[in-house]
Structures are given as structure tokens and as C-alpha cells.
Amino acid sequence: MIVYNWVCSFRWYEVCLAVGSYLLIHFWRQRNRKGAAICWPLVGMLPSLVVNLERLYEWLTEILKAKEGTCVFRGPWLCGMQSVLTCDPRNIEYALKINFPNYPKGQEFHRLFEDLLGDGIFNADSESWLLQRKIASLQFTSQAFRQFTANTVQDMVENRLVPLLADVADRSASVDLQDVFLRYTFDNTCTAVFGKNPGCLAPELPAIPFATAFDDSVEATMFRHVMPRICWQVSRLLNIGKERQFLRALKPLREFVDDLIAFKKAAIAAAGEMQDQDLLSSFMRNNDGGDGGGGAAGASFSDKFFRDTVMNFVIAGRDTSAVALTWFFWCLSQHPHVEDNILAELDEVRQRSKDCGGAAAEQRLQCSGGSAAQRFLTGKELQECVYLQAALMETLRLYPSVPVDHKGVLAEDILPDGTCIRPGMRFMYSIYSLGRMESIWGPDCLEFKPERWICVGEDGRLRIKYESMYKFLAFNAGPRVCLGKEMAYMQMKCAAAAIISRFRVRVAANHRATHKLSIILTMKNGLPVTVTRRELGL
To answer: Disulfide: which of 30, 70, 75, 376 matches 86 by Cβ 3.0-4.6 Å?
Structure first.
């Protein structure tokens, strides 16, 4: 009777209020405590993840610093979110190279990206990946394709990018530099992949339905990563929330790619042969048993395969270089002495070419308007710009375009640091955190310091000091290392050299550079800048 009376008089709302208050205070303390990732019953570390979602990559870095490079992330029970998160170069090399077969993209990765990437090279495993990699590798390493892309980049910079910024400078206007770079790399990538320039870098800066749709789809994909599978699958079934946004975005993406594939097929039908050097032509040459020069005879590719393949390359080529350039100019705005050093190097390279009597350099000088200090550099001259490349590499160390990546696990394994990983878990590696570890880069790891990438060669000239690709993971590593690495550097160096030589770029006052919650490290709110011309001869 006493127990009954106690239960009847018990005020459950008071208990709920007390528990709710405790959880609220606890969450607030977690948000303000570095490295906090408390594992709750049933829901695991998901509450900590949700609380820190807006600063996800910084939070992961704090956890990894507190856990000495590796942490086991436990998600809600039976939701498939259990992961080993690491930024230990030994673990990364082991999974990406030494025991590569045990760490494929996996079913979970494929499920997350299937709608966006289909069965393209970045979402494929086994024979499909090997075939696509083989064909693409032949194209990326061919001299004809390299020259084709080099000419495309040079033309885009000289005749589109620089005139656009000159117009902005003459009008004393401001511009979102990130948007400009996304247009620049999109036009470049479409030309390299399809052989057609969509003209996004036109002076009027036309609307790009593909770009808007892609941004929406990437944002929705990110939410798939941070919520239990059942949640986004139910949202997809009910066509609500981020999944509704995703499905709406897919239509213009696919229409854009399908139109360009149809354009290529029509061009081939009209010409009767395929002499074009773009990537799609390379895959089409390998279709229906064409010899393709690479042993891919007998391959038969569907229209969906073409769409998935080129979608992968367009997405990879558009965002990664553009985002890197955006963060590069942000870093220059915070470190003016680095910009001065780059200017000095560009002048030195031009002077060295002039002293050597380079006829090609003199011809380009006449074509570019006559100022020796602002002459467009040739591809060979850009290769000599050691400090410029070091500054780009330092940007990618601190602001990698793809901040986190993950793999599946086929069989139970022990990582080099002793961590046990089992099938059904994800192997996640934080590239963002990798560049912020004192144990890897020293006590100055958070400083923007291009000099860390430079050494003096035996001939007394500056050289790039390369680090292990498992410490500097901006272009992935192992068998899946990025095929477009050299093309990306060429895009970035050509644009950066041309802009720095001709313009002073100033970031808008009080602009706060933060990144979006996205699988790409896109700058939130863009990079608003003003552009003024440099004085001739300076």
C-alpha cells in the first residue's frame, strides 16, 4: 500500500524535466570540451556527433589528438555506423596499399553514393574498377591528352579567366572568387571529359543548373554519412527532407550529362571516326570490342555506364581544384609575405627564360600585351615555380578538398597500431586531421608555411621536398591514387600565376572563412573579394 501511494504521488514530469536538464547541460559541456565523444547506451556516440555537426572536421581532429591518432566510433545499435577513425599514417598506408584487397569501397560506400556516382570509377570495386582505371590511366598518361588539357587550361586562363577578372577590376566591383573558380574548373573539366566547353566562365556569369543541383546532392549525401541508414532510407521512401532535395537534384545532373553524351555521339556519327582527345572519346574507342590500345577489347558499355563514368570525372575535376584555389587565395590574404615571395619567383622565372633567349617566351610576350612582368607563363615555366607549388601543397595540407574518406572491411584485421577492425565496420581516415597533427608535422603544424615543402638540390636550386603520400593525402594514395593529380596542379598553378601577376586580390573585410558541412571542403558563403590591377612592370 505504501509503494502504491508513492507511485501514485510520483510526478513523472519532474523526472523528465530533470533528465532533460541533465542531458542539455551534458551536451553543452561536450560542445565546449575538446575531444569529447561519450558513448551512450543504445545510441552510441551519435549525440556527440549531432552536437558537433557544424564543426565536424575540427571535432574529429580534437578526438584524434586526444586518442593519439585512432578512435573507434560507435553509432546507434544495429545501425551500421561503427567505424575505426584514424589519421595514423601507418594505418592509412596499411589499408590503402599493404592490405588493399581487404579495404574496398564496399557496399556501404556504394549505397551512400549510388544515386550520385552510380557504378563509376570512384564508386566501383573489383573488375569494374580495374577496367575503368585501365582505360582512364591510358588516357591520362598519353602525351596527346596531356597536351590537349594543357592547351585547354592555358586558353581558359588567358581568354576567359583573366579577362573576366580584368572586367571586375575595371568596374571596381566585388566577386565571389570561389564561384569564379568553380566555373573555371567546370569549363576545363567538361572540355577534358567531353571535348565541349559549356561556357560557364562567360563575362555575364550565367546560371549553372548543374552546379546548383550538384551542391544540393553533395549536401544531401553528407547527411547520409552522419545519420543512421534507416533514417535516410525512410526519408527517401517518404520523399522528405534532404532525400527529397537529393532526388530533385539528380534530374538536372543526369540531363546535363546525357545531353553531352548525345552531343559526343552525334559528333562521332557526323565525323565517322573518333580523333578527339577527350576522356569520353577514349572510353567510346574501347566500346564494342574496339581495340582501344589497352587490352579492353570486347568491352561493351551501356549509356548508363558512360553517364556514371563521366559524372564521376566531372564531379572530381570541378570541385577539388576550385576549392583548393579558393582556400589558397584565402591563405595568401592572411600571409601577404607568401604572395610577395610568389611574385618574386614568377619574375625570376620570366627573367631566366628571357636570359636563355627563349623564342616561345618572347612570342607569348608580344601576344599578351607587352608587359614582361605580366607575361603568361608557359607550361614548362610553371614547372619551375617551386615556391608557388609549395604554397599550393601547404594549402592542401591544411585544407584538403576531400576532408574525410572511408573504406569497407572484408575480413577481421589488426591495424599497425593494434586496433582491431571487423567486417561491417568502416575504415575512416581524416585527411583534414592528418595535416593538423604535431606528431606528424611538428609543433608548427597549424602554421601556413610553404617553406616546409622546399629543399635545395645538388645544383643549388630550389626543389620540392616530397613527403610520404600517406602523410600528405590530398590526392589519395596507393592503387587508387588520383589520376588527375598533374592536371589539377597545372590548373591551379596556371590560374594562380596569371591572377597574382596581374591583380591584387583583397578579401572582403570581416569575412569569416568557414567550410560547409559537405563531403567537399567548400567555403561557406564563398570568398567575396575585390580585384585591382597591378601596376605594369611591378
So the answer is: 70
- Evaluate whether 73 touches 82 at the Cβ level (below 8 Å): yes
What is this structure's pTM?
0.87
- pLDDT tens-digit series, residues 396-449: 999 999 999 999 999 999 999 999 999 989 999 999 999 999 999 999 999 999
Report d(CA 364, CA 372) in Å as an integer: 10
Residue 305 to residue 327: CA distance in whole angstroms: 34
C-alpha cell at 91: 594505418
Identify the residue whose cell numbers are 582505371. Answer: 133
Please tell me the distance from the alpha carbon of residue 371 to that of residue 407, in angstroms, as a whole number.
51
State which amino acid sits at residue 320: T
pLDDT in tens, 36-50: 566 677 677 778 877
Query: Which phi and psi (to 5°) does residue 420 adopt?
Result: -90, 135
d(CA 502, CA 507): 16
Q: Which three cell numbers stand for residue 535?
A: 601596376
Are the beta carbons of 495 and 325 closer than 8 angstroms?
yes
Three-state SS letters, 266-325:
HHHHHHCCCCCCCHHHHHHHCHHHCCCCCCCCCCCCCHHHHHHHHHHHHHHHHHHHHHHH
DSSP 9-52: H--HHHHHHHHHHHHHHHHHHHHTSTT----BTTTBTHHHHHHT
Q: 433: which 3 cell numbers?
A: 586531421
CA atoms of 182 and 319, how far apart (whole Å): 6
478: left (phi over 0), alpha (psi -120 to 50) or beta: left
CA–CA separation, 245 and 232 (whole Å): 12
Cβ–Cβ contacts within 10 Å for residue 30, how many? 17
